[in-house]
Amino acid sequence: MRKLVISVMSVFAILVLASCQPEQEQAQSEDVQEPRTVVDLILSNGKIITVDEAFTIADTVVVNNGLIVEVGDASIIEKYQASTQVDLQGKTLMPGFVDSHTHIRGEPLRFIQLNKVESISEMQRLVRIKADVLGPGEWITGYGWSEDNLAEGRKPTRQDLDAAAPNNPITFTRAGGHSAVVNTLALQLADITDATPDPEGGVIERDEDGVATGVIRERHNIVGQLVPESTYEELFASLEINLNNLLTLGITSITDASKTPEDYTMWEELYAKPGAMLPRSKLQFQWDDPEAIAEIKARVGDGNDYLKIGPIKIFADGGFTGPAAFTKEPYVDQGDYRGYLNMPEEELVALINEVHDAGWQMGIHAIGDAAIELVVDTLADTLTRNPREDHRTYLNHFSMRPSDATMDKMAEHNILITQQPNFTYTLEGRYAANLDGWRLEHNNPIRSPMDHGVFVAISSDILPIGPLVGIYAAVTRKGMSGRVFAAEEAITIEEAVKGYTINSAYINFDENIKGSLEPGKLADMIVLSADILTADAESIMDIEIEQTYIGGALVYEAP
Ligand SMILES: [Zn+2]
Predict the structure, then answer these.
(1) Does one domain contain both 220 and 320?
(2) Are residues 220 and 328 in the same domain?
(3) Are the C-beta atoms of 361 and 310 separated by less than 8 Å?
C-alpha cells in the first residue's frame, strides 16, 4: 500500500506555490477557505465498514490522539491537514476484531505448539528437535493436537512419542484441553501402569489387551503436575510474542479467560514495557482469591484502555474434546454417559449467587445442554432474588442448543452469549463422535438464540484463534469436511462481523469506546486484502489482514 506522508515541508511548498498565484485569486481563496484542523492520520479512498448503528460504509476516517475524529465521504479530507495520509486504494477497512473469549499465556521453552500439526510424523519431527535443544531427561510439553487433523486419522500413542524421544518425558495436551497423550517415561514417572485404576472423573485409555495407550482423559494433570515450573522470564518473553501475534490476525482487543492475581502481575509488567506492541486486554479472573481480584480492579481504574479487569469466569461443565460436556441425553455409543458438572450442583448454584452478590459480571462456561439449562435457571433465580440493571452476565460457548424455554428465559433476564462458531468447523469430528441427530445438527447455534431475542457476541477461544475462521463457520455452518450443520442456524456476514466487533465490545461494557469506527472511539482498525462483505463465503478464510492499527498507530503490516 502506498503511503502519502505530507510533511510540514510539503505543506510549506504548497503554500509557496499558492503565493505564486495572481494576487486577486489568492485573496478570493483566502476568503472561502477555513483553516484546516491538524490531525495525526487520515485513511481515505477505502471501503470503510464503520459497524455503526446503520452499518454505514464510508470512504475516509480521520484520527487524532488515538481517537477517531470523523468518518465520512472523501470530501471531509478538505477540513484536515494530517501528518500521515494513507490512500487505501479501494481496500476494505473495518474495526479491529474484539475477541471476547481467548486463552493467551506465556509458554515455557519446553513447550511445542501443536495446533497446526497435520501428522504424527510431523509431531515426531518437532519432538526430536525439542529433545535435541533441551537434552535428555527434560520434560517436553505441547498443546493443540487433534486426531481430526492428523493424516494418520488416529490419536497419537505413547509408542509414537517414545520413537521420537525415549529419554524425555512428554505430555501433549489435545486441542480443547480435556485430554493428553503422554509417553512411556512420563507414565513411569507418574507411577501409572496398565493395572492402575482410572482416576476419579478421568480415564486412562487402554487398548483391547488392557495396555495403556498413553492417552489420559480429563485427569491428565496426574502427569502434567510433574512438569517443573518454568521461569518467569521465559513465560514473560513468550507471552509478549503470543499477544503480539494476535495483531497479525486483526485482533485488537481480547477478553482472556481464567486468570489469577499472579498472572495479572506479569501482564501488568508486560503492558508497562516501553515499545511492546500488544492488543488491548481484559482479564477474566477465576474466583480463587476474591479479595486480591477486587484489589486489582480498584487499582486498575478506568484510565487505562490497554489492560483491564473483566468478568469472573465460572466453569459449569467440560467440553466435547474430553468429552465432559454435561448433556440432557446420553452421548452416542457411550452407555448412559452424559458428561458431568465441573462441581456438585449445589456448589455451582452457591458460587453463581456469591459472585453475583459481590457485584461482579460473570462469564460462565456452559457447553452441554443440561449445563446451559441449569446455569440459566440458576441465573434467572439469582437475578430475580437480587436484580441488577445491566449486569451483562453471559454464557460462554453455548455449544448445544437448549430448549426454546431456556432461550426465552435468557432473553427475559438479559443473559448474553459469547459463542465460538469456529468450533463447528474444528470440532466437527468431536461432535459427530458424541452427538447425533438434531442436537448434532444444531451445534453452536447462533440464529436460534438471536431469534429468541438473545444477544450474541462471537469469539475464538483457541480452536483456532482467528476471527476469519469463526466468521466463515458462522455464515456457512460448515465443518472441516465441508459438511453443513443445520443451515438454518447460519447468520449473515454482516451479523458475524458485528458479533466479532461491536457485540463483543458490548458484552465487555466497551461499546462506547470500541467495536465500531465512530467519532470519539479508539482508532483500532484493520485493513483487509478483500471486501469481506461481498466476498464469496468460501473465500472468507483466505482474506489476509494487511494492516492493524491500535489507537491510530500501525502495529502490524503484512510482509
Ligand atoms: Zn475457553
Answers:
(1) no
(2) no
(3) yes
Find the 128 Cα to ligand 1 centroid distance in Å.
30
Distance 187 CA to ligand 1 centre (A): 27
Query: Near ion ligand 1, which residues have CB within 5 Å?
Result: 461
Q: Quick one: cell of 189?
A: 514417572
Q: How far is the CA of 88 from the centre of ligand 1 (A)?
A: 36
Looking at the structure, tell me whether residues 333 and 455 fall in a common domain: yes
CA of 103 to the centre of ligand 1 (A): 6
Residue 13: pLDDT above 80? no
For the domain that residue 176 is a member of, what is the CATH number?
A: 3.10.310.70
pLDDT of residue 20: 41
Count structural domains, the chain.
Answer: 2
The answer to whether position 210 is within a domain reads yes
Query: How far, in Å, from the CA of 485 to the mean position of ligand 1?
Result: 22
Phi, psi of 409 (to 5 degrees): -65, -35
Domain that holds residue 381: 316-491
pLDDT tens profile 55-95? 999 999 999 999 999 999 999 999 999 999 999 999 999 99
Quick check: is 37 in a domain?
Answer: no
Query: What is the Å distance from ligand 1's center to 257 Cα?
Result: 7
**Distance from the CA of 483 to the center of ligand 1, in angstroms?**
24
Q: What pLDDT band is residue 31 in, cutting at 50, 70 and 90? A: low
Residue at which a domain ends, from 164, 192, 224: 224
Ligand 1 mean position, distance from CA 177 (Å): 9
User: Cα of 352 to ligand 1 centre, how many Å?
Assistant: 18
Distance CA 355, CA 296 (A): 16
Burial of 513 (0-12, 13-18, 19+ CB in 10 A): middle
d(CA 61, CA 517): 8
**End residue of a domain, out of 471, 491, 511:** 491
Is residue 320 a part of any domain in this protein? Answer: yes
Whether residue 204 is found in the same domain as residue 323: no
Give pTM, 2 decimals: 0.84
Residue 381 placed within a domain: yes
Cell, residue 517: 469506527
Separation of 313 CA from ligand 1 center, angstroms? 10
Q: What is the pLDDT of residues 508-540, one digit of tens each?
A: 999 999 999 999 999 999 999 999 999 999 999
Same structural domain for residues 342 and 448? yes
Q: Is residue 329 packed enough to be buried (19+ CB in 10 Å), middle (13-18) or exposed (0-12)?
A: middle
- In tens, the pLDDT along 252-273 reads 999 999 899 999 999 999 999 9
User: Measured in angstroms, how far is the CA atom of residue 176 from the centroid of ligand 1?
Assistant: 8
Note the pLDDT of residue 302: 60
